[in-house]
From TrEMBL:
The protein's name: Phosphoglycerate kinase
Database matches in SUPFAM superfamilies: Phosphoglycerate mutase-like
Source species of the chain: Paenibacillus etheri
PANTHER family the record matches: BROAD-SPECIFICITY PHOSPHATASE YOR283W-RELATED, HISTIDINE PHOSPHATASE FAMILY PROTEIN-RELATED
Annotated catalytic residues: H22, E98
UniProt cross-references to Pfam families, sorted A to Z: His_Phos_1
Membrane-crossing segments per the record: none
């Protein structure tokens, strides 16, 4: 049952959100950088996606969900395989991409290390732009949060979102109502092919009920 609550002046439907980190991609094994580098899944990655779909098929009623994905190949291909298992169409959204790595997109990890902008200190800096033409972490969080607000307000069904590691962490931070400055000391980390789940508990608190579940990959 959907419940409607008021947060400030905004009315939202309370939903369950299943977040999937895309499966193994070519950039994990060929020394390419991540971010907006657009690489497809490996054969192992496709098998991992198939296992995710089979696991969800046993655990959820697919008719209650809509399936969203980043438009980058590694996420989109993961979502397409899961969508085939669940009979769900993939809705692509470019705002679900990983952080924009600017000029490092399409480059090797070695090139990216040698051409990143210098840091001012050792602590995490929200306003640090790692690469020319890329995003700062603050801009990245703003993009992800705005995207989730739109999706959450528009959809009446529960959500499955296939995305990237950094984006996954920031979707969780958005759900937990983090202000940007709170990200300086906090981070949610998950693994390739993992499942995380957001919902509301009986006290209408936003909850992270599952983080980084990879048990389905070993069944």
């Amino acid at each position: 049952m959907k419940v409607v609550i008021s947060i400030g002046e905004r009315m939202i439907n309370v939903k369950r959100i299943i977040i999937i980190q895309h499966c193994q991609s070519e950039h994990h094994i060929n020394n390419m950088s991540g971010g907006w580098t657009d690489t497809p899944l490996t054969d192992l990655g496709r098998k991992q996606a198939d296992l995710i779909g089979l696991s969800l098929l046993k655990k959820i009623n697919h008719e209650e969900y809509v399936l969203y994905s980043s438009d980058l190949l590694r996420a989109k291909q993961t979502a397409e395989i899961i969508g085939m298992q669940l009979s769900l169409k993939v809705i692509e959204n470019s705002d679900l991409r990983e952080i924009n790595t600017g000029i490092a997109a399409g480059k090797t990890k070695d090139w990216a290390r040698e051409n990143r902008n210098p840091r001012k200190g050792s602590e995490f800096d929200l306003d640090y732009q790692e690469y020319q033409d890329g995003e700062t972490w603050r801009q990245f969080y703003s993009r992800v949060s705005s995207c989730m607000e739109r999706i959450y307000a528009e959809e009446s069904k529960d959500l499955i979102i296939v995305t990237h590691g950094g984006t996954l962490g920031y979707i969780i931070a958005w759900w937990m109502n983090f202000q940007p400055e709170m990200l300086r000391k906090s981070y949610f980390s998950a693994s390739v092919g993992s499942i995380s789940i957001l919902n509301q508990n009986g006290f209408q608190q936003n909850a992270l009920s599952v983080l980084n579940d990879t048990s389905h990959l070993y069944d």
